[in-house]
Amino acid sequence: MLSSPLAQVKGIDVHRGPFKILEGSSVTLEEGEIVAVMGENGSGKTTLIEAFAGILPLRSGEVIWHEGGESTVVRDSEGRRNPPPPMGLTLQRGGICGDETVFERTAVSLSVAGISSDVAQILELLDHWGLRHRSNDRVAHLSGGLRRRLAILCGLAPAALSQSPRVVLLDEPSEGLDESAKVTLRGWIRALSSRNHGILMATHDKELSSCADRVLVIEGKSLSETPGDSSGELSKLPDIGQTTEQSPISSLVRWSMRMELRNPIETVGRVTPAIVAILLSYALIMGHDLQDNNSRLQAALILAPAFIASISSPALVSRLSESDCGRWWNAVVGPMARPAFSITGASILLPIPVTYLSWFVLSGSVDDQVSSEVILWLWIPALVMMDLAIAATALHLLVADLSRSSAAPAPLLLVVLVWPFLELTDALSSIIDEGMTWGLSIHEPLVTCIVASLISALLWLAAVMIPDY
Fold it and tell me: Engineered SS bond to 142: which of 122, 146, 244, 397, CB 3.0-4.6 Å?
């Protein structure tokens, strides 16, 4: 019986910095097949796994996945990228954020793969891997061995509960596991193969590679192939789960919001510099009548705290950098991961309350009529500040994805956001001086706010599109 291909790389060249790691490599993973990738440290095993996942740019070649008789170009050397079909993935560093609980992480790995599961099914999965007693603990509180068990389970579970054949990508899955966990791993891999799932794993473990159908050895940027032993006992897997039409992006949004609600360092980290800016502005203008000062300066001081809160580095960036969590999401969600994160990680709730707080603190002895007019329309420039916040978050995420993000001139990239801020300053200055007007000339408040919003949108678009081209 002929098997069907699930995923393949064709003639790919992959560079890591100035070094070429893979050259002209082609590999096909078929249904029910276990392929082990072996080689020395730095030979390109992880590179091949991540190339299959679509998270590495290619100098040449393409990555193609197959599902239900349809083929999808997941990535190619021309910059095209599409989300892969649902899969299981375990990266070398795990890809798990420490703020997640063990139960939540397992549930997320299933939901993002389009599998609906109940509490009993998830607890059964955890029980297989000796994690049930830690189901409510945060991942950060686990030992290294238990964290690795969880990472492996989350890579295998989307296939274990799936009726249709799935791809499972495992990078050094046996590293950090004790002997009992290694036995479980080998048994699950053989059992998944019997259900027609395809498993591609990078490993140094000869015992693990013994259960493979084929062994690929990477030497000097090229691949050689030898037959595997295909040995090992099959474990009993949990029952098949139910599929759902839920989008991976919805799982990403819920995950992002849940992490912030559990540990609200995002809000605290942004509110603190905003309040400091309000107090410094108050100290600067204390004893002066705002109406006697330049309205443009007034507007700048009022909007500055919200601007500072908007461009501050989001806590999401540090969460995504933890244990390659961001790379895992980037792989399973595809090219829409960064646009989605730029919205969920942005300070979209703070600009309006911070701007109004700034006005009430700094308005001083402003005439009541002017104050009433400003209060009535102050929400418009504050609302546009949300667009600016989303663009700023996208720029932070862009920098974080660079190979040497700590060396990148992130502050210089954020300087460009001063442009929409100045447009909003002009709009608020006009409202302070003349009240809200509804003309369509370039200097009218509403038109100026729209221009600021468009500038922010263009900056956001550039930040989310550049990394994939």
Answer: 146
Strand, coil or helix: 233: coil
Which pLDDT value is given to residue 405?
52
Residue 299 CB partners (closer than 8 Å, separation 6+): 424, 425, 426, 427, 428, 429, 432
pLDDT range class, residue 111, cuts 50, 70, 90:
very high
In one-letter notation, the amino acid at residue 90 is T
Q: Please give the C-alpha separations between residue 360 and each of 230, 357, 435, in angstroms, as whole numbers.
A: 73, 5, 17
Here the tokens at position 128 are 């297989």
> Positive or negative, the Cα torsion across 377, 382, 388, 394?
negative
Complete DSSP assignment for 137-190: SBGGGS-HHHHHHHHHHHHHHHHHT-SS--EEEEESTTTT--HHHHHHHHHHHH
Tens of pLDDT, residue by residue over 423-439, are: 999 999 999 888 888 88
Residue 39 phi/psi, 5-degree rounding, is 160, 170
Q: Which domains does the chain have, with CATH numbers?
A: 5-243 (3.40.50.300), 248-468 (no CATH)
Q: How many CB atoms within 10 Å of residue 39?
A: 19
Average pLDDT estimate for 24-31: 93
Instruction: Quote the mean pLDDT of the chain.
Output: 88
Please write the tens of the pLDDT for every residue from 34-57: 999 998 888 889 999 999 999 998
Q: What is the 3-state secondary structure (H, E, C) of 304-350?
A: HHHHHHHHCCCHHHHHHHHHHHHHHHHHHHCCCHHHHHHHHCCCCCC
Three-state DSSP class for residue 402: coil
> What interhelical angle do 445-465 and 379-400 show, nearest 10?
10
Which DSSP category does 43 fall into? S
pLDDT for 468: 60
Per DSSP, the three-state class of 274 is helix
Whether the per-residue pLDDT at 159 is higher than 90: the answer is: yes
What pLDDT is stored for residue 307 in this prediction? Answer: 93
